[in-house]
């Protein structure tokens, strides 16, 4: 047991918040090949618990002794982990009592959101075909799963192809890889709701630009849901566009054009697009990720308020440069995985200023907390200029 505690402490003292904890742990375990899979699991769980709980107790100071005692009492079977989490969930959160220092988007309560960061979220998949057959297959293997309705606004969601499962469910061993996409409920809902709005307006996207495409979560969903359309994806990182290309290949999707673009650079955008206009633009900007901190509790632990200014300085220019390429009558979808006003409503407000032709059709948080999912923010605009 002592060696597990040694490794837990060693990770906690050497990890400084970057790269993501999952990447750091993989590298750490590569350096310690004698650790078996059970050891790695116990160390990872304890470290994640530390970061989940640390916010509840005065920068985590008392959390480590609780983990140590738990491990000494229970071994690495981890029944103690549940008890630690239950204890933490019930404990008062000092930061809530003091009031969370950053204003949260409309509809978010600081207490509910902070409490949700202490629970591990669920796993969500989007099933690309025969969802009922897939559910039966999973249930036959004793994997508890249920359909989760996606879309917005509340009351207009549809239970379709989104499945909710316990985190860690071994879907990769049971399903063919091209039959499903791992994608959080809120991410699915962000696009599903926007598509519903377009459908209600009798609008069918033909020329789509996915700005900040990352590895293509939103684009893959669009390709699965819509009839043929031309798609441009762009991101500042060439390596992530390579991942996107591999994913498109895996899912047998075609009709893709890719460009490396720094969307904060007005000249670069103009040179890359040569006056092209798009009738649909998805703008899923870089952000604090605060709506996903339940999955990455280390980001909350190491978060510093100044980082918000840095993101805000990226979000507006990225969105404004993209908006300049929106065709008349076109739809512009601004998305973040943040719950902070500064990255959400404040950017929407700035985008509206000086653009009288831009109509805001919808703006709000997609709250995944009760479902064990992430929170996102989405605003949908339409260019009403003739
Ligand atoms: C929230 S992620 C996008 C996630 C992606 N849309 C998806 O659904 O999987 C934001 C992306 O913005 C990219 N990015 C950051 N700064 C950028 C910039 N200045 N111009 C273009 N993309 C940028 C990042 O590389 C990252 O992939």
UniProtKB/TrEMBL annotation:
Question: Which keywords describe this protein according to UniProt?
Answer: Methyltransferase, RNA-binding, S-adenosyl-L-methionine, Transferase
Query: Has UniProt tagged this entry with the keyword Acyltransferase?
Result: no
Active site at 337 (nucleophile)
Q: Which residues form the SAM-dependent MTase RsmB/NOP-type domain?
A: 113-386
Q: Give the record's GO biological process terms.
A: RNA methylation
Q: Which Pfam families match?
A: Methyltr_RsmB-F (PF01189)
- What superkingdom does the record give? Bacteria
The record lists S-adenosyl-L-methionine as bound by 235, 262, 284
The record's GO molecular-function terms, alphabetically, read: RNA binding; RNA methyltransferase activity
Family per similarity comment:
Belongs to the class I-like SAM-binding methyltransferase superfamily. RsmB/NOP family.
Descriptive protein name: 16S rRNA (Cytosine967-C5)-methyltransferase
Please spell out the taxonomic lineage of the organism that makes this protein: Bacteria, Pseudomonadati, Bacteroidota, Chitinophagia, Chitinophagales
């Amino acid at each position: 047991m002592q060696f597990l505690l040694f490794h837990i402490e060693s990770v906690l003292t050497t990890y400084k918040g970057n790269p993501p904890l999952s990447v750091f742990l993989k590298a750490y375990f590569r350096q310690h090949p004698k650790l078996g899979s059970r050891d790695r699991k116990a160390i990872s769980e304890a470290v994640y618990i530390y970061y989940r709980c640390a916010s509840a107790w005065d920068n985590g100071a008392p959390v480590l002794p609780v983990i140590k005692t738990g491990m000494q009492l229970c071994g690495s079977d981890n029944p103690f982990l549940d008890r630690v989490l239950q204890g933490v969930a019930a404990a008062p959160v000092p930061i809530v009592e003091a009031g969370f220092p950053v204003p949260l988007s409309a509809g978010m309560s600081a207490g509910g959101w902070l409490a949700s960061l202490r629970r591990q979220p669920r796993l969500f998949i989007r099933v690309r075909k025969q969802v009922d057959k897939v559910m039966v297959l999973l249930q036959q293997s004793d994997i508890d799963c249920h359909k989760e309705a996606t879309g917005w606004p509340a009351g207009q969601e549809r239970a379709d192809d989104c499945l909710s499962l316990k985190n860690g469910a071994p879907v990769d061993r049971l399903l063919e890889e091209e039959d499903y996409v791992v994608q959080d409920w809120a991410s699915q809902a962000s696009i599903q709701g926007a598509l519903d709005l377009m459908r209600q307006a009798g609008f069918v996207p033909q020329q789509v630009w996915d700005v900040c495409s990352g590895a293509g979560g939103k684009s893959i969903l669009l390709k699965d849901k819509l009839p043929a359309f031309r798609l441009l994806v762009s991101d500042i990182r060439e390596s992530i566009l390579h991942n996107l290309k591999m994913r498109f290949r895996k899912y047998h999707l075609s009709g893709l054009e890719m460009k490396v673009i720094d969307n904060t650079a007005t000249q670069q955008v103009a040179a890359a697009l040569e006056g092209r206009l798009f009738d649909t633009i998805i703008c899923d900007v870089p952000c604090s990720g605060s709506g996903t901190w339940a999955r990455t509790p280390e980001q909350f632990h190491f978060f510093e308020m100044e980082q918000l200014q840095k993101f805000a300085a990226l979000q507006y220019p990225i969105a404004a440069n993209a908006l300049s390429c929106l065709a008349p009558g076109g739809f512009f979808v601004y998305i973040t995985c943040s719950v902070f006003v500064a990255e959400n409503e404040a950017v929407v407000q700035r985008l509206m200023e000086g653009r009288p032709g831009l109509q805001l059709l919808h703006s709000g948080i997609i709250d995944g907390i009760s479902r064990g999912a992430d929170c996102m923010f989405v605003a949908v605009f339409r260019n009403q200029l003739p």
